[in-house]
Amino acid sequence: MAQAMKSVKEMNLAQKEKVVDEIFHAQPHMLGSVLVLRQFGVSMEKMEFAIELLIVCFVAMKESGLTWPVITEEDQELQLQLYTTTVRLGEDLSPSLRDRLMQQYVENHPEKNLCAYLWSATANWLRRIVPEDSDRYVMLVVINLVNCIAYVPISDPVKPVRRREESA
Questions:
Q1: How far is Cα 47 from Cα 37, in angstroms, rounded to an integer?
Q2: Are 146 and 118 in contact (CB under 8 A)?
Q3: Which in 24, 68, 86, 160 has the greatest CB count within 10 A?
Q4: Is 154 helix (H, G, I), strand (E, B) or coil?
Q5: Cβ count within 10 A of residue 93
Q6: DSSP states of 105-145 as a string?
Q7: Domain ranges of the chain
Q8: What does the alpha-carbon distance between residue 50 and residue 48 come to, in Å, rounded to a whole number?
Q9: Nearest to 32 by CA among 23, 41, 40
Q10: CB neighbours (10 Å) of residue 20?
C-alpha cells in the first residue's frame, strides 16, 4: 500500500492518464462508478479526489501480485448495500459508540491499510473543501471501491477461490 501511495504521488498527469486507460480496460466498472459522479452534481474538482483514490487503489491491486476479476456493477451494488446498511445501523448510536463501530469496521476490514488510507485521505479532503450535499456520493463511491477490492473473491491457480490475508 505504501508503495502504491508513493508511486501515485510521484506520477505526472500523463502517467496518471495512462493508469486511467489501464483501469478502463481492466476494471471499467470501477472507473464508471467514479465518472458517473458528474451526473449526481459532483464538480470536476471533487471528482479529481475520487479519481486519485481510484488510481491508488488500482496501483495497489497491481502491485499486490494478485489477479482481481473484473469488479462488476452487481459487485458494486452488493457492497454498497452492505455498507449503507452498516452505516444506518450506526445512525442511532451516540457519537462515541459510532466512533467505536467505525474503528471496529476498519480493524476488521480485509484491506486494513487501504481502508485506513481511504479514511485518512477522505478526512483530509473534507477539511479542504467547501461542503456540498453531493460530497456524500464521492465518499460512498470511494469506500465502495475499497470494499469491492476487499470482498471480491480472487481466483488462485492452486485453490479455486480464496480471500486475501494481506492488504493490497
A1: 7
A2: yes
A3: 68
A4: strand
A5: 12
A6: HHHT-TTHHHHHHHHHHHHHHHHHSPP-TTHHHHHHHHHHH
A7: 2-151
A8: 5
A9: 23
A10: 16
Bridge partners of 154, per DSSP, are 162
Give me the DSSP letters along 32-96.
HHHHGGGGGT--HHHHHHHHHHHHHHHHHHHHTT--PPPPPHHHHHHHHHHHHHHHHHHTTS-HH
Instruction: State the pLDDT at residue 18.
Output: 97
Residue 167 predicted with pLDDT over 50:
no
Predicted confidence at residue 159, as pLDDT, reads: 45
The pLDDT value recorded for residue 166 is: 46
Q: Which single residue is written with the C-alpha cell 466498472?
A: 29
Question: Average pLDDT for residues 28-41, to the nearest whole number?
Answer: 96
**C-beta separation of 29 from 72 below 8 A:** yes
Which pLDDT tens digit goes with each residue over 73-120? 999 999 999 888 888 877 888 888 888 887 887 788 888 888 889 989
